[in-house]
Amino acid sequence: MRNLRLVRRETPLAGGQFRAVLVGVVIALLVGVILLLATGNNPVSTYLRMLDGAFGSPRAWSNTLTRAVPLGLAGLAVAVAGSMGLWNIGAEGQIIAGAIGAAWVARLAPDLAGPLLIPLMLLGAVLGGAVLALGPALARARLGVSEIITTLMLNEVAIRIVRYLVNGPWKDPEGNNFPIAPEIPDQAKLPGLFERANIGVLIAAVVVGLFGWLVSRSAWGYELRIAGSSERTAEYVGISLRTKILTVLVMSGMFAGLAGGIELTGSASRLVEGVAGGWGFAGIIVAALALMRPSGVAAVAVAFGAVQIGGLSIQTQGVPAAIADILQALILFGALAAAVFGNYKLVRGEPATTLDTAGGAA
Amino acid sequence: MVNLWPDYPWGGPATIAFGAYSRHGGTRGTLVAPAQGQAVELDNIWKRFPGVIANAGASLRVKHGSVHAVLGENGAGKTTLMNVLAGVYRPDEGTLKLHGEDQSFAAPADAIAAGVGMVHQEFRLVPTFSVTENVVLGAAPRVLNRSALEDQVAALAERFGLATDPRREVWQLSMGERQRVEILKALWRDARVLILDEPTAVLTPVEAEELGRITAAMAADGRSIIFISHKLDEVTAFCDEATVLRGGETVAGNLAVSDLDAGRLGELMVGEATAVSQRRVRTTQPGASALDVTELRVVDLHGRHIVDGVSLSIASGEVLGIAGIAGNGQRPLADALAGLIPSTGSVQSGIHDLSSASPNERHRRGLSYVPEDRIGVGLAPRLSVADNAIMRTYRTDAQGLLIDQDKSVAHAKDLVERFNVKIADLHSPIAGLSGGNLQRLLVGREVDGNPTVLIAAQPTRGLDVQGVAAIQRVLLEQAEAGVAILLISEDLDELLALSDRLAVMHEGKIVAEFDPDKTTRGDVGVAMTGAVHAEGASA
Q1: What is the CATH number of the domain that holds B443?
Q2: Is residue B406 part of a domain?
Q3: Is B38 left (phi over 0), alpha (psi -120 to 50) or beta?
Q4: Quick check: helix, strand or coil at residue B299?
Q5: Does residue B387 belong to the interface with chain A, where contact is any CB pair within 8 Å?
Q6: B233 and B164 in one domain?
Q7: Which of B361, B376, B398 faces A232 most closely, judged by CB atoms?
Q8: Same domain membership, residue B182 and residue B62
Q9: Hey, which residues 195-224 in chain A have their CB within 8 Å of chain B?
Q10: End-to-end Cα spacing for chain B
């Protein structure tokens, strides 16, 4: 194994990453078989149960789709920025900011009618995400400060703010001293769609679909892709990079904020510290698996959601939670690791030691 | 034998001398003693890529201490064969011997360790590192003493006439200067076999002659130089022997360059006689002035005036050539005229004052730009042919927010057909296209909107014979159609053939202007060195 190393393919693998990812998932499932056998579980029935739990019934579908909503919006946030070569690592914090924004609207106008209140709360969520992304966007566009660092660090800020709110001014007096905010009014909750899914699924589908389409088809998206390919080419064509960077990063924050709003008005019903649930970080994986193409985010988000929901459902069958988590991690790891082989291959040989090697193989 | 080689800072190189050869007679050295052995023996090399056989049994033998030309059209397999020798590619079949010993390179590091250095066409330098840091990267002594290293690099550079400041960062350097850094890198690693992949593509004639002296000196030191080129005059001037590739095969090996002439070489390379170089034949008189530039200045980050008060005017239908050694302000001049970098002074095009106009507005007013850096500025490498074709038209062709897909594909098809771009698929990324096809696409797109002014920076650099001819033909057609053309080139023959007037830039200024019909390469070359400040300072 020591003399195996990765070498960039002279031409990308035919059929693209999709084939590689599929192979990676299959390998992960095979490794999972060993794990399940070793722990005394029947691998066949476990995998069937996973599939059934994710897609086997309308209820399963509703769970999977509900889970895909924050994953898809966070993935879109990362992928839209990524199409331009920008890295928004702050979707987690922006989701929190969005949930705070939505909760704030509900606190300010708790008696508004639902059809008015819900759109206002979602607007508050979008603005919340935008506000958190604005600082990094301005710093990047005006001063060239790396957006990776600033967006990442603002996650911590957002977590501290929500922690302060639910422990302090917004703490539910009837919450038995738990760090939670009061439940939002009933009319502020998103109407159901089918089974456990609410219309948040539709909202997310429209937003992800629309922007995926805009990035690949609109003049705006075209300029984004030029800038992502080469900033100097964008300047040559007369695209204002500053404006583009600013709008794209703020927009990215808006998508993540919307995810927070839907989460609050949909499943969560009240502001809690863990409202973002790690979906902001999972969004990076979603975007990476979609190859940073917003048009691919929806499908990846549903598949990712299915893995999570399937993992949960086998726990009801007696598979320990730890094993279920390991299976989920294996599948994601397999998919991500395999995606590399679309562009790289393993070869035997002496390990690369000089920079010239890396440059020469490019 | 004079030892041209400095002692190595980290404990001395293997000082191998392959026999004491001496050269006589200026830059065009002739081997006095016959070479005893082969430095490089590549035999029956096959290398296949999906859909392409790049090398189909190619062979190459290079004698010790010689300068060996490898000739061939773009796509003849030269670069692939060199990449095999440099350890970048592993051949599917075939054997490789260095100094008589079998070699099998798993990585470029192996080739470097075996004494093979390669200067690629696209430079592999770290832009934010200094010259010294780039040169010693991966081959530095254990204890770093920056100023000592800088002195050693400077000494090495000076010894071989590779004028460069070891403290400057690479991003500040012109293409010609970057090439010198690449050569220094190979020399620092004590390359016994040095591959130069189309080295003169980025050089002026004066710099090319310097390179000839450098290669001669290295060969006299027992090193073997492989010199890839398209140009016969360079080959006869700098090289001892030549190997010609065509279609991935060696069609002629170890020809003595004295036996070569243009007709025979052309026949070997393309299988037919090459076309005579085109020459501007006026059928129309220049019209009204289309571009008037007054006192244009560009200041770089260090406060230096890299364009220093340039004034010029070009009439419609006229070609103004700009000659100069790389790094004398040609590139910032072009960028400033296109509005890509800030400048002071006045830029007028007809009735329009473009002095402070955005790149976009300049283009709307009829100013097209073919930049020197095709793939990093003029084109977006990760986007498709169709996407690259519509860069200048998508704003006006858009239907509301959306790009009109049918129109964009039709536009791309039209460009591809009219300018003879060879592609497999309009929707695949352009990154895989050859230099000639990229340039046909770029030039085609830039002249498509009937510009009034065309700025063409190094439009034919690195292209094969047909590519050069195709681009030059387009430029001449545009001039005949009344476009004012600013042609910046490092190919003096091209400038003399195409220009109506020829200006020379030196240190940011226009120092001389010539009538191409009444001057010689020599006169222009002298002006390029800055030796003569004659014939008025404005063009």
Answers
A1: 3.40.50.300
A2: yes
A3: beta
A4: strand
A5: yes
A6: no
A7: B376
A8: no
A9: 214, 217-220, 222
A10: 49
Which tens digit of pLDDT belongs to each residue from A191-208? 988 888 999 999 999 999
Q: What is the pLDDT of residues B115-127, one digit of tens each?
A: 999 988 778 899 8
Burial annotation A185-208 (CB, 10 A radius, 16+ → b, else e): bebbbbeeeeebbbbbbebbbebb
Residues of chain A contacting residue B49, judged by C-beta atoms under 8 Å apart: 10-11
Tens of pLDDT, residue by residue over B419-476, are 988 877 888 888 777 788 899 999 999 999 889 999 999 998 878 777 888 899 999 9
pLDDT bin (cut points 50, 70, 90) of residue A176 is confident
The reply to whether B185 and B204 lie within a common domain is no
Residues of chain A with Cβ-Cβ distance to B398 below 8 Å are: 219
B480 and B382 within one domain: yes
Give me the residue label for tokens 């560009």: B298
Residues B356, B425, single domain; the answer is yes
| ipTM of the complex as predicted | 0.78
Orientation angle between helical segments A43-55 and A16-38, nearest 10 degrees: 130
Residue B254 shares a structural domain with residue B394: no
Residue of A nearest to B185 (CA): A356
Question: Are A229 and B402 in contact (CB < 8 Å)?
Answer: no
User: Which of B104, B129, B391 to probe by mutation at the A interface, max A CB count within 10 Å?
Assistant: B391
Do B323 and B239 belong together in one domain? no
- Range from B9-13, B161-165, B422-426, B496-500 carrying the lowest mean pLDDT: B9-13
Among B189, B221, B242, the domain boundary falls at B189
B109:A233 CB<8 A: no
Query: Mind listing the pLDDT tens digit for each residue in B316-346?
Result: 999 999 998 777 899 999 999 999 999 999 9
> Which of A218, A222, A241, A243 to probe the B interface (max B CBs under 10 A)?
A222
* Burial of B42 (C-beta count, 10 Å sphere; 0-12/13-18/19+): buried
Instruction: Count CA atoms closer than 13 A to A168's CA, side-chain side.
Output: 7
Domains of chain A (ranges, CATH numbers): 1-41+321-362 (no CATH), 68-318 (1.10.3470)
Q: Are residues B300 and B252 in the same domain?
A: no
Q: Which of A229, A247, A347 to mutate to test the interface with B (most CBs of B within 10 A)?
A: A229
